[in-house]
Design goal:
alpha/beta; 257 residues; globular
């Protein structure tokens, strides 16, 4: 089976692009399941029920999150109610939502796990210990195929966790830095890996934000209100070709369209 992971979807233009393009892309590439990071899908960052609904309507099966997932309180009830909307598993237990989902397809069970990095990020529970816990839970619940969205800043942390879970999960892909990396590979023990799958949104932007505003902020060091960029969009992600019987990935194909 083919599983498509879509990089951080940014704002209304990113959502509209996915809504208009994903269905055709799935058919053309025979995609069986879609995981998308939606923590920036609301205007101004975060995720709202409306932006989540657009992504689900587009054909996204599971929405993962990151450090901005809990920024908009309006989404808290949806995080508790929807099993297909995740937030990082290493948030405190008091946080709404959950960090893992088991999808029963009848012929196989698929687990999707969401974990947040801590290097240059917020102080959360250890990603490595969280991965151990979530992988054990997934396997106890009968998951043969296990995917991890590791939402992290540092490439070193992403690489380290990749090797740490190698051989125990089907694939681990990075999100958060919004720039697709050129290192898609199968690790030594069989786990598919890519440091970051990129961003879905306006091409001529800085991480989905109007570029002149970001330049002004970095150059002049003055407070600025970030506004989502407008213009031509692209979708970044990765297609994983998974063997249902073994749970291993035989092919990793980064995509940009």
């Amino acid at each position: 089976m083919k599983i498509l992971a879509i990089g951080d979807i940014c704002g209304k233009y990113g959502c509209e692009y996915v809504l208009n393009k994903l269905s055709t892309f799935k058919k053309e590439n025979k995609i069986d399941m879609v995981i998308a990071n939606g923590e920036n899908s609301a205007e101004g960052n975060g995720i709202l029920p409306g932006s989540a609904d657009i992504l689900f309507k587009s054909g996204v099966d599971v929405i993962t999150g990151g450090n901005h997932t809990l920024r908009r309180r309006e989404v808290y009830p949806m995080l508790d109610e929807s099993q297909f909307l995740l937030r990082p598993a290493n948030f405190p237990r008091s946080a709404p939502g959950k960090g893992i989902i088991i999808i029963d397809l009848g012929y196989t069970n698929i687990a999707v796990i969401n974990i947040l990095g801590v290097v240059y990020m917020e102080n959360m529970a250890c990603p490595f210990e969280t991965a151990d816990k979530m992988i054990e839970e997934a396997k106890n619940l009968g998951a043969k195929i296990i995917f991890i969205d590791f939402h992290a800043e540092a490439t070193s942390e992403k690489r380290a966790l990749g090797f740490y879970v190698d051989g125990r999960v089907s694939a681990i892909f990075g999100t958060h830095t919004h720039v697709q990396t050129n290192d898609a590979q199968i690790l030594p023990k069989g786990t598919a890996y890519i440091t970051d799958i990129g961003m879905t949104g306006v091409k001529q932007s800085v991480l989905g934000t109007e570029k002149d505003i970001v330049i002004s902020k970095m150059k002049d060091k003055l407070p600025n209100r970030f506004i989502g960029a407008e213009g031509e969009c692209e979708l970044n992600g990765c297609i994983f070709d998974v063997d249902v019987k073994s749970g291993l990935v035989s092919g990793v194909l980064p995509v940009k369209f």
